[in-house]
Amino acid sequence: MAFEAGPTSTSLAVTSFGIHGSISADDAVELWPEAAASRLTALKQRRADLHAAMPPFEDIHELAETKMRHANRIRQLLAPKSEGGFGLPELAPQVVAERRQLERVEAELTQLQSLKEVRTGRWNVAAQLERSITDWLLRGGHSRRLQHRAG
C-alpha cells in the first residue's frame, strides 16, 4: 500500500484581483497555461511512481527479523548444553545449513536496503521539486504571473 498525500491547500487572499478565501495548488495550476499545468501534473505522477517503486518497509523489516532468527538459531546450536544450547561443532550440518540461509537473507537484505536508499533519493528530489512549485503557487506566484500577463 503506497502513501498518497492529501490535497494541499491554504488560505490565500489575492488582493490585486479582489479574490479572498481559500485556494489550493490544483486551483492555482488551473490559472496556468495548459503546457505548464501538464508539466506539473507529470511531475506529480513521477513523484508518485518513484514512491511506489520503493521497497516497502514491511519487506525490509521481515528480512531483518528473519536474519535475526537465523543468527539466534546458530548461537543456540553452537552454545554449550550447560547454557541451554545444543553444543554442536561449527561444521555440523545443522549449523552449516543455518549459515547458508543466513548468508542468503543477508545478501537479499543488503540488496533491498541499497535499492531503497537509491530510490528514496530519487523520490526525495522529485517530491522536493513538487513541494517547491506548489509552495510558490500557494504563496502567490500564480497571481504575479497573471499580473505580468495582464500588464
Low confidence ranges: 7-21
Number of strands: 2
Into which percent range does the helicity of residues fall? Answer: 55-70%
Strand residue percentage: under 5%
Order of helices and strands: EEHHHH
Count the helices. How many?
Answer: 4
Question: Cα distance, first to last residue?
Answer: 48 Å
> What is the spatial order of strands in the main beta sheet?
1-2
Q: What does the main sheet amount to?
A: 2 strands, antiparallel
Gyration radius (Cα, Å) is 27 Å
Q: What structural class results from the helix and strand content? A: mainly alpha
Present the secondary structure layout.
Blueprint: E1 9-11, E2 22-24, H1 25-30, H2 34-52, H3 57-78, H4 93-150
Antiparallel strand pairs: 1-2
Helix pairs in contact: 2-4, 3-4
Walk me through this protein's architecture.
It is built from four helices and two strands. With 151 residues, it is mainly alpha-helical. It has a domain at 55-120. It has a two-stranded antiparallel sheet. The longest helix has 58 residues, at 93-150. It starts with 8 loop residues before the first strand and ends with a helix. The model is unreliable at 7-21 (pLDDT under 50).
Structure summary:
By secondary structure, this protein is mainly alpha-helical. Helices cover 70% and strands 4% of the residues. Helix 2 runs antiparallel to helix 4 and helix 3 packs antiparallel against helix 4.
